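Need Mitochondrial inner membrane protease ATP23's 3D structure for a figure. Predict it.
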Amino acid sequence: MEQGEAASSPAAEEKAAGEEEEDDFGYRLFPDRNKKPQSFLVRSLFTFHNRCQLMLRMTLDTNPYAQLLLEAMKQSGCTVFNDRHFSCENCDGCVSGGFDSATSQIVLCQNNIRHQSHMNRVVTHELIHAFDHCRAHVDWFKNVKHLACSEIRAANLSGDCTLMNEIARFKFGLKGHHQTCVRDRAIRSILAVRKVSKETAEKAVDEVFDACFNDLEPFGRIPHSKKDAKRAYRDFQNRDRYNANL
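Structure prediction for Mitochondrial inner membrane protease ATP23:
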């Protein structure tokens, strides 16, 4: 999840006094999740919702990151449908999107996504979680290492840590900066949706970092730019054609 983006789940943690406090699995960040769906007429009256839907359609139709992930999910037996698997909703002020593993639905925070490039990144980030959910059956609710792995992959492959995005955050670095950004954003995402200590989140990320950072599926490379993503998408399509002829 980007701060930004909330991934799936959390677990329960004990209070300092010794009683157990039930975790809400990050759903507090998405208050519209538990509300009765509004009618199309009512939703159409809200500018945020209309803008969100238009930007989502633009992302799905034109963004190579999203197009590659959609095709990869289809090949894995998890075809994504716009009306079924995406939902534009109002969210907590600190997140832009999330993947609800209980419903296999991506939540897009219509009150926090303000421009197309942000929508592109959020959709890509959450589609990586959805792809992991499809291919690996991630235990979002009980295994923090599973969550950490998907957050590492999402930060690494979605464009969250591109040089331009980091400059926009006033963060600069040289050697190892991309890895540092991925690690930091994965930790922040876990802390946003899980009631665990910072030390627990850091340990989970560090224990799986190398394996998950180097898992580049379905891109086959780290797409540092849209040009890289287009090349990866073309290679993915060619790989599919090659496999079909075997």
